Amino acid sequence: MVRLITYNIEYCEGMEGIWYQYLKFWKIFFPPQKLEQRMVRALRKIKPDILTLIEVDIGSLRERGKDEVKFLEQKLGLDSFVEKIKYPLKGWLRLFHHLPILDKQANAIISRFPFTKVKYHVFHEGTKRMVIEATVNCPKPVTLLVAHLALGKKARAKQIKELISIVNGIKNPVILMGDFNTFNGLEEVHGLMKKTHLKFKRGLDEKSLPFTEPAWHPSRRLDYILTSPGIKVKTYSVLNFHFSDHLPLMIDFEFR
To answer: In angstroms, rounded to a whole number, what is the distance separating the alpha carbons of residues 10 and 62?
Structure first.
């Protein structure tokens, strides 16, 4: 059995999604002290084998140069990681690679299993364009895809079409996950699931929450874990973690 978690940690700024918290703009530069340690203690209790992170800081002045991915890998006793800045190196968005803080905003995968292949895809639309593709053997090969989709509905729809092409080009079983920003509900990913045969585990554990955002009072499902038919999801949970404005998703899976 493999335990996987996907979590938008909001750069460890410590806001739970209440509107007035976003007025505390200084948290962008001075995140709450010891929040990372609290997150580590909570994650240690559930012992993930694979942890994917959305909105992670990999060493900006906000973190005084500390890479949160390396920090979590070490503290959780995991063995491998891959991280990538969310913005492309072409077009006007390449400027983000030269702006303080923005130049260290990334997504990442941390794993107990070594990566056998890593690849990056860049969407043609939206601001956040990077998709991480990484394959691990656990013990059979599975390809992990991590995405953070656009806030705008039109750009998001175009990104979903590109995701369909990416998924259908992979021969291994696939787990596609991340923050999809589906403000219009699950119907936004119906076409994706239909055209790729990826599935969304609808059954919830008894203690699980049904939605993932905002963390203080979840009313929307913005975060997903979608799996190929060759993967059997044994348990599915929305974790009641209040370290971010999103709640993390967790599955335990095995191969059919």
So the answer is: 13
What's the CA gap between 251 and 55, in Å, rounded?
20
Q: What is the pLDDT of residues 165-189, one digit of tens each?
A: 999 999 999 999 999 999 998 899 9
pLDDT in tens, 115-164: 999 999 999 999 999 999 999 999 999 999 999 999 999 999 999 999 99
CA angle 185, 187, 191 (to 5 degrees): 140
pLDDT reported for residue 204: 59
pLDDT tens per residue across span 56-90: 999 999 998 999 999 999 999 999 999 999 999 98
> Rounded distance, CA 105 to CA 10, Å?
10
Return the beta strands (E) in 18-173 as ranges: 50-57, 80-85, 105-111, 115-122, 130-137, 141-148
Query: Tokens 């079983």 sit at which residue?
Result: 173
Instruction: Write down the domain spans for the chain.
Output: 2-255
- For residue 239, give every residue at least 6 positions away whose Cβ sits within 8 Å of its Cβ, in sequence order, or none: 5, 46, 208, 247, 248, 249, 250
- Look-up of token digits 């999809």: 180
Phi, psi of 65 (to 5 degrees): 85, 0
pTM of the model: 0.95
Q: Are 108 and 83 in contact (CB under 8 A)?
A: yes
Q: CATH number of 2-255: 3.40.228.10, 3.60.10.10, 2.60.40.10, 2.40.30.10? A: 3.60.10.10
